[in-house]
């Protein structure tokens, strides 16, 4: 069902949170031919965060969303 929905709605990316496991997202992406990317929820900035403060992390989240949506 998810594969059909992704195809119907032109979904390209499965997102997962930086502080959560990526295993489910990567399995779903592999099974459906999609890519994965990260969105940081800011619950705790760590070494794995895509920025050192709120603004850097939000810019990174925006960049990841723009890439997934095909925006420039």
Automatic annotation (TrEMBL):
<dbReference type="GO" id="GO:0046872">
    <property type="term" value="F:metal ion binding"/>
</dbReference>
<protein>
    <submittedName>
        <fullName>Zinc ABC transporter substrate-binding protein</fullName>
    </submittedName>
</protein>
<dbReference type="InterPro" id="IPR050492">
    <property type="entry name" value="Bact_metal-bind_prot9"/>
</dbReference>
<keyword id="KW-0732">Signal</keyword>
<dbReference type="Pfam" id="PF01297">
    <property type="entry name" value="ZnuA"/>
</dbReference>
<comment type="similarity">
    <text>Belongs to the bacterial solute-binding protein 9 family.</text>
</comment>
<keyword id="KW-0813">Transport</keyword>
<dbReference type="GO" id="GO:0030001">
    <property type="term" value="P:metal ion transport"/>
</dbReference>
<dbReference type="InterPro" id="IPR006127">
    <property type="entry name" value="ZnuA-like"/>
</dbReference>
